[in-house]
Amino acid sequence: MVSLTTPVCDFGRPAIDFDLPGVDGGRHSLASARGPRGLLVMFICNHCPYVKAVIHRLIRDTRELKAMGMNAIAIMSNDPADYPEDSWNHMVKIARELDFPFPYVLDATQEVARAYGAVCTPDFFGFNDRMELQYRGRLDESRKETAPEGVRRDLFEAMKQVALTGKGPAEQIPSMGCSIKWKSE
Q1: In this structure, what is the dihedral angle of CA atoms 84, 54, 64, 92, given to the nearest 10 degrees?
Q2: What is the Cα–Cα distance from 133 to 117, expressed in whole angstroms?
Q3: What InterPro entries does its record include (predicted)?
Q4: Is 4 helix (H, G, I), strand (E, B) or coil?
Q5: Which of 47, 78, 109, 166 falls between 20 and 30 A from 121, CA-CA?
Q6: Which CATH fold topology does 3-179 show?
Q7: Coil, strand or helix: which one is 124?
C-alpha cells in the first residue's frame, strides 16, 4: 500500500462532467449531483484504512453540508481485481449499511479519476456554485486511525466557507491516503 498526499488546490479549475452508475440503481452526473451552493466530489473506496478511519465523520459532515445547500458524491475508481472489498456488491453493501447521504458511484474505466487528477483515497474536490474548485484538502487530522474527538473539521469548515462565500480557504492541508489502484494497461 502506497501512501500519497494530494496536490495543492488549483483554485478556479472547472469541475469535469461525468455520467456514472450509482449503487442506488440510478445514473449520476455533475448536474444531478450538484447542490445550489456547490458540490463535494470525493474519491473513496471500501478497503482503504484512511477512508475507514474517517467514514463516519464524512457521513456526518456531508449531512450537515447538505443542509447548507452543498451536495456530495462519492466515486469509487479502484480496480477491484486485487481488492475484492472494492467490488460493486461491497459498494452496495457499505452504502446501505452506513446509510450514505450521498450517491456512491462506480468509475469502472477510471476515466473520471484520471480527468480529475485523483491520486488517493480519500481525495476531496470541493466546488462552489459555479463549479469552480475551491478545496483540495483533508477531512481532518486523521490518518490510518481516527483522530481524537474535537479536532478541527478542515473539510467541513472549508466547504461551509465555500457555501457561504463561494471561496475556499487560502491555506489547505493536503489529504493523505492509499494510492488509487490503477488497472494494468
Answers
A1: 10
A2: 13
A3: AhpC/TSA, PRX-like1, Thioredoxin-like_sf, Thioredoxin_domain
A4: strand
A5: 166
A6: Glutaredoxin (3.40.30)
A7: strand
> Could you tell me whether strands 123-127 and 133-135 are parallel, antiparallel, or unpaired per DSSP bridges?
antiparallel
CA-CA distance, 40 to 11, in Å (whole number)?
14
**pTM score of the predicted model:** 0.96
131: left (phi over 0), alpha (psi -120 to 50) or beta: left
User: Which grid cell sits at 4?
Assistant: 500519497
Q: Omega of the bond prior to 84 within 30 degrees of 0, cis?
A: no
42-56 per-position pLDDT tens digit: 999 999 999 999 999
The burial class, CB within 10 Å (0-12 / 13-18 / 19+), for 136 is buried
pLDDT digits (tens, 9 = 90+) for 54-113: 999 999 999 999 999 999 999 999 999 989 999 999 999 999 999 999 999 999 999 999
What does the pLDDT read at residue 2?
A: 60
Is residue 1 scored above 60 in pLDDT? no
- Using an 8 Å Cβ cutoff, are 40 and 124 in contact? yes
Say whether 140 sits in a helix, a strand or coil.
coil
